[in-house]
Amino acid sequence: MATRQTRTLARTMMAPAVIVLLIWMIVPLAMTIWFSFQNYSLINPMMTGFAGWGNYEYVIGDPSFTQALVNTLLLVGGVLLITVIGGTFLALLLDQPVWGQGILRILVISPFFVMPPVAALIWKNGFMHPGYGMLGHLFEALGLEPVDWFAQYPLFSVIVIVAWQWLPFATLILLTALQSLSEEQREAAEMDGANAVNRFRYIILPHMARAITIVILIQTIFLLGIFAEIRVTTGGGPGYASTNIAFLVFRTGILSNDIGAGSAGGVVAVIIANIVAIFLMRAVGKNLDA
Amino acid sequence: MARNVSVQTKTGFTILAWAVALLLFSPILWTIVTAFKTEAEAIASPPTFLPLTFTLDNFFDVQDRSDYIKHAWNSILVSVGSTVLGLVIAIPAAWSMAFAPTKRTKDILMWMLSTKMMPAVGVLIPIYLIFRDLRLLDTVHGLTIIMTLINLPIIIWMLYTYFKEIPVDILEAARMDGAELWNEIVHVLVPMAIPGIASTLLLNVILAWNEAFWTITLTSGRAGTLTAFISSFSSPQGLFLAKLSAASLLAIAPILLLGWFSQKQLVRGLTFGAVK
Amino acid sequence: MGSITLEHVNKSFGEVEIIPDISLEIKDGEFVVFVGPSGCGKSTLLRLIAGLEDTSSGHIKLDGEDVTGAPPARRGLAMVFQSYALYPHMSVRDNIAFPLKMAKTPQAIIDQKVDYAARTLNLGSYLDRRPRALSGGQRQRVAIGRAIVREPKAFLFDEPLSNLDAALRVNMRLEITELHQQLKTTMIYVTHDQVEAMTMADRIVVLNAGNVEQFGSPLELYKKPANRFVAGFIGSPKMNFVDGPEAEKHKAHAIGVRPEHFTLSTTAGAGQWAGTVNVAEQLGSDTFLHVEVEGLGLMTVRTDGDQTFSHGDKVYLTPDANRIYRFDAAGLAL
Fold it and tell me: What residues of chain A lie within 8 A of the CB of C52, using their CB?
C-alpha cells in the first residue's frame, strides 16, 4: 500500500530513530574497544600508549575475573532455576479456580515493580539482618543461631533478592502462555484418559515450552547486568565473593579508575551478551511476521 | 477458567495460592508496616507485626528532607522527560515501519531491539568519560538522554505493535479524503492509537523510574533520582529502619500502583511479541 | 468531468507481474465494473487509479490530465472501501465532514453539504452516532456519504457489498444504481460477483490474471463473449462446455451451450444428447438440472419451475443450433 511518496516519507521518519540508535551503539562501543587496547588509568596519567593485549591479560588473568565469571554464571543460573521452576508452579497455581484471582495476581506481580535498591535494602535490613531482620527473629524463635547472610552467603543472598524480583515476570509470562492453552485441548486430553500429571507432562508443558524459552532468554539478557542489588548490599564482597562481570567492570573502571582494564572487561561482557542475544533474536524473529 | 471443581478443591487451592502470594508479598508488606512504626519498635525483638504505636512521623521526616524531595522530583523529570522524548522520536519511526514496511523493516526492528541487549557495562566507561567532558555528569538532562536511548527500542517496538493493529484502509481513506501525511497522523492515527500510546507511556515511565544502573553511576548527589537516593543508604547511617521504610514506600508506591494496571503491557513490551 | 484513461499500465511487485499491460478508456458518467476471479488484479487496478499504489510503468489520465505520479489527495477521486474504513473515533457527521475539513472548506458550507449528503442517504437520524453503533448497511451509507460530499470526478468502489448479508446486498445494489442515475458521475466498481456486474454496469471489464479479457456492455458480454473465459464467467449458472469429437462436428475445438438454450424431453430418443439427472435444483421459478450426459460429462440445464425431476431420471437434450458458441484451440470465439 505504499507509493513512492509514502516510501520516501517513511525513510525520513525513520531516520532520527535509526541515527540516534546507530550513534548510541557504535560510538561508545568503539571507544570501549579502543580504550581496552590502551594504557589508560585516571590515577596514573603518566602511563599511556598502546597496550596490546595487556589489559585483557591483566583482567582475564586476575583471579577476580574467574571468580566474577563463575559468580555471573551462578547468579544467572540460580535466578533462572528459581524463577522458571517457581514461575511454572505459580502459573499453574494461579490458573486454578481460586477466589480473589485479581488480588492474587497483584500480590504476586508486585516485587517486579519495586526498584532494585529498595528491594535490596528491604531484604538486607528487614529480612537478612542478623540483628533485626525477620529471618534472624525466625531463627532465634527456632532456637538457632541467626545467620549473617551477606557475610556468610553473599552471592546466595544476592541470588535470593534478584530471584524475588524476577519471579513475577516469569510467572506473568508463563501464566499468559498457560491461559492461551484452550480449555478444549485439556478436556480432550481428559477424555482420552490422561490424569493431571500426564496432562501436565504431555499437553501443558510442551505448550509452555516456548514461553519458558523466551523467559529464559530475556531474563538472561537482563540478569547478566545485575548491578544495583550488589552495589547496595555487599558492594561485591567480601572480597570478590559477590562480584559479577558487570560489577567487576564498574569496580575496575569507575571505582579504581583503570580505564584500560575496565574497558577490556566491558568488551568481554559484550561478547558474552552477544552470544545470548543471537539465540534470543532467532526465537523472537520467528514471531515478527504478525 | 470455567471449570467445575468441588468447593473443597477450590478452597484447597485458594488457601495454597493465598499463602504463597502473601509470602511473596511479605517483604513489601513489611516495608508498609515498618514505615508506620517508631524506630525503636522497628528493630524490637521479638518483632511486632502491626505497629503498636502507629505513627506518621517517619513520613513527615522524609518529606522534610529537601534531598528526598529533590530526588523525587528528579525521578519524575527523568521518567517523564525520557518518555516524551522517546515518543517524539518513536512515533514517526513506528508509523513508517507499520504502514510503509520494506523488506528491510523487520531486520531494522530486530537491530533496534538488539541495542537494548547490549550490556550497559560495555559502554559505561566511554559514556562516563564523555559525560564528564561534556559536563553532563550529574545533570538531569544528561540522565534523560541516556534513559531515552536505553528505552527507545522498547517504545518503538510497542508502538509498532499497536500501530499494526490499526486497519490500514482507514489511513488510506484519509489519504483519499485529501489528508496529507501530517493530517493523517494527527487527525486519524494518533486518536486511534491513544490507548496504545498511553500503554507505552505507562510501561516506559515504570522502566525509567526503576532504572538502577545509569541513575547510580552517572549521578553523585545533585541529579540523582530516587534509585540513587535509596542506594546511598546501603550502609545504615542517616536514615534508620523506620524512616528508610517510609522513604522506600514513598519511592515505590506510585510505581506499584501503575504496575498493577500495566500487566498486559508488560507482557507485550518485554517479551517482544514472542508470547501472546 | 470524469473520463479516465489508462495507457499501457503495468504493475509489478518485484518480479511478480500483477498487471502486464492494460489500456482502457472510461467515458465520463459511465458506470464501469471491474469483474473477475480472486487474484485477477481488479482491486490492484482500482488502487492504481486511486493513487494508493504506484504504476510500475504506463500512464493514468483523468480528464486528459496525466495524474500518474500524483498522490490520492490531489486526484479528486473518492473511494468506498470494502470495510468502509470509517473513522471510529469520529461521529457520523465528522466522518462525512472530514474530506471537506481537509480541503479547508468554511464551516457553514461543510454543514450544508453534510446535511445534503445525510438527506440523500437517509442518515439524518444518526449523524451524532459513532460508527460502532451502526449496522453494516448504515456504515456503508456513511462511507458513501463521505465520498459524495467531495463531489469527486469519479467514485471508486472496492467490493463494497461483500460484507453485507444477501438481502441487504440486493437493496444496496439498487441504491447505488439509483445514486448513479441521480449524480451522473463516473463510477468504477470492483466485484467478484458477476450478478452485481451484470445488473449495475454500463460496461464491464472482465479481468483474468491481470489481463482484460473483454470490455463491453453486459448484454454484449453475455451474447457475444470474446473468448471461453468470458463465456464461462458471465452468466449464472455457467455455460456448459464440450470438447472433443462433439465439438469437431461443429468445426470448433470446443463448443459452449448456455443452460437456458436446451430443449428438454423425457421421451426416449427425442433429443441429441441422452443423460441422467444427477441433482435437480428446484427454485420454484426455474428448475436447474445437473445432468450426466453420456460421453460428454456433466451439464446444467434450465427448465421451467413447474416440472419436477429426481435423481436418476432419464432426459434427452437438444441444444439450440443457433445459440451454440464455438471456440478455437486458444479459447477465442469463432
Answer: 1, 3
